[in-house]
Design brief:
Helix content: 25-40%
Shape: globular
Radius of gyration: 22 Å
Number of helices: 5
Order of helices and strands: HEEEEHHEEEEEEHEEH
Structural class: alpha+beta
Strand content: 25-35%
Distance between the termini: 48 Å
Number of strands: 12
């Protein structure tokens, strides 16, 4: 083998350092697990399913946020408005649905009626609205950087589901497949 030159050593060290930085940065994002689902009952009511990985059945800060879906054409014609919004430090996208803080017990409940003891903050109509994209989510109860549970959907997607089907991170599955996926995710 030939001798290592200063350039070779620097290239190897730079490569190793870059890999270490990339791996440590990737480790900061929480793992998204299929622990959240939405299903429609026999009466056509949408329900939330939240499953926990901890032994106490807890989740942190569950919430349901619906935000207006903007058409690409609308965004392209309002460059100035988008620039103004982006520069505002207090710009928060308005949402409808509900939001909680702190630890809560994982539960099954009608989508727009979280358990009363959660004391959820509600905003806007508490029914699925056309033109909105919804996210139902929660964080790990012990360290919110370990995992999250989440599912996104809209009114049309839920309306197209049959009673008993569950929409989760993996798509539409049976209730049994949802429960099995949650067990495997933990």
């Amino acid at each position: 083998m030939g001798a290592w030159t200063g350039t070779t050593v620097r290239v190897c060290l730079a490569s190793a350092l870059s890999s270490a930085i990339m791996l440590s940065t990737a480790g900061c994002s929480p793992e998204l697990r299929p622990l959240v689902g939405v299903y429609v009952d026999q009466q056509g009511t949408a329900h939330a399913l939240l499953r926990a990985c901890d032994d106490d059945g807890r989740v942190r800060g569950p919430w349901l946020h619906g935000t207006v879906v903007r058409a690409e054409d609308d965004e392209a014609t309002s460059d100035e408005a988008a620039s103004d919004e982006a520069s505002s430090d207090e710009a928060e996208e308005p949402w409808i649905g509900w939001d909680t803080r702190g630890l809560r017990q994982a539960a099954d409940f009608p989508l727009f009626a979280p358990p009363a003891q959660w004391a959820a903050e509600t905003r806007g109509p508490q029914t699925l609205q056309p033109g909105y994209s919804y996210e139902l989510a929660f964080a790990d109860p012990d360290d919110s950087y370990v995992y999250n549970g989440s599912v996104t959907f809209d009114a049309r997607r839920i309306a197209g589901m049959s009673a008993g089907e569950v929409l989760n991170l993996d798509g539409v599955v049976t209730r049994e497949a949802f429960e099995e996926a949650t067990r495997k995710a933990c």
